[in-house]
């Protein structure tokens, strides 16, 4: 059964995988877990239970040393954020957790969903982050064998019949068999055409085990952290609201 706790763990594993795959690092400071993602110059604090200055100060100093342009904190809605606010963090767009099997048929869009990390058009950080799809296949000095961040990751792009990319997204296999959807995006001129739904179905099908008995293949449960602008999309596709969390951003380095 998917819970908010398992959703938080899945998102933490994604940020850790993304950090390691792009040449960054993961580290802890006095009860705080961090992921440094260099291609975005982003330092991420992952669901601290009780963040204290002893854990925040050294990590923020390290962020400054590394050249972080953005520092974020993902926080359980029930956690005490007093020390985060004192350090300069404030709430960003509210996060809502959604989970469930897809409810909308996949034949609503005429384009193609292509799986894999071969995307010649990708540049900069977008191109570098495609390496996360290979991390689970390779040994990493930062992640021991069996580390949950080494779960399978798939990437999908949506292309029109002319071959133009109009959307993309990632999915990472969770510890409970769920698929955590990440960075799902559709070009602003192509929304409300079924492309996002097609991406969800493509990512879901990508994880099906072709060697498993048919009777063992039930509907895949998807998991997503939604913003206010994407919450209705996930609900319309059959995912149910689990609860809410907090996404905070450091507004100053004071």
From TrEMBL:
Q: Which GO terms describe its molecular function?
A: acyltransferase activity, transferring groups other than amino-acyl groups
Where do the N-acetyltransferase domain residues begin and end? 117-254
Query: What UniProt keywords are attached to this protein's entry?
Result: Transferase
Entries under SUPFAM superfamilies matching the protein: Acyl-CoA N-acyltransferases (Nat)
Q: Which Pfam families match?
A: Acetyltransf_1
The organism's place on the tree of life at top rank:
Bacteria
Which InterPro entries has this protein been placed in?
Acyl_CoA_acyltransferase (IPR016181), GNAT_dom (IPR000182)
What is the recorded name of this protein?
N-acetyltransferase
The protein's organism comes out as: Glutamicibacter soli
